[in-house]
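Field: sequence (string)
Field: structure_tokens (string)

Example rows 1 and 2, in order.
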Amino acid sequence: MRSYQLRAKMVKKINLVVYYKIMNKKLKQCLGIDVSKSNLSICLGVLNSNLEKEFIGHSDVNNDLSGFKVMVSWIRKAVDNNVELVVLMEATGVYHQGVCQYLYNQGYKVSVMQSGRVKRYAQSLDQRSKTDALDSRMLSMLGLE
């Protein structure tokens, strides 16, 4: 193979690698939290530069200090630190206040939405079944919009 052919092949390979890195760049991240009296269901949503959404679920954690610490430990491992993370949860009486305050004190950007708005967003997705895991995924999807 001649040197110019080899060089052209290498340039093509490098261009593919650069293209892949650009197309898989993360644009947004949102952690959706479905809050109940005793548990938190969490799901991390990521929007890539090719406008594809990926969702990473986690098992439920307790709605107390020990559960908050487990959740923050998982967040630190799962999140890309180069992209801002938004935490989104639905207002649920007083049950969301503890986790909201804890995450805010840890330096996270936290948004609490009215339950009516969240319900209408879920209806717009035509989501028929209702589980905590699906609700946390839907909340992370809402945060990526």
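Row 2 begins here:
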Amino acid sequence: MAQTIDRVRVLDSSGDPMSVKGYIVAMRWAIHTHSDKIFTKLSAEDPQTPGERRFFDESGAFSTAVRSLHYAPSLAKLRQPVLSAALQTGTLVSPELGFSITIWECLLPAMKGLRFIGGYFPSNHNGTLPYDFDNDKVIMKPKNPFRLDQTSGTFFGIEEQVFRRLVDTSRQGPEVLREFRRSERTTTGYSGVSYLPDGHILGQIELFRPVATDIV
């Protein structure tokens, strides 16, 4: 796997390659339908990129670029292709262009006070939500309440303040992410929802509800 890192070159301001620590992790899962010769396996390596000098982020531009590239695929998943392209290419979006967003809350007590920009991936092609709306009230109402073998979908989102900072990045440049702070709250209290320090959240759609819309 180390050959993958060998193809990466990180250059300083003079164009000289610097040695950067890399991490490669590969996993293979064995399930009950596999043969007895297949085992679950985890492989990890930490090779260095080619270079005579140890890496030092002289201007901070490298870390901000990595952060931009980290969030670009997530913005694409949130159906924000313009924002995603801006972070992917390091270009700027006109301030005259606004973006429609839906703001959600997680129903778990441990996540109280946090809001997320996101949506859900349905478990079937119908894409039905597990609740209805009645005079701005959310009513939990599975479409097939008698069937226990059906799920509605998976929610995916980014914490609201992180998302708004990404929008600012698309308009002002990657330097906005230089002061980015990881979230200190990562424990959701329930295995059905995962919340990461970078603001990403993933979980059962039944544990989230839309609370507002906005233009940013």
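free_text_note (row 2): The mean pLDDT is 84.
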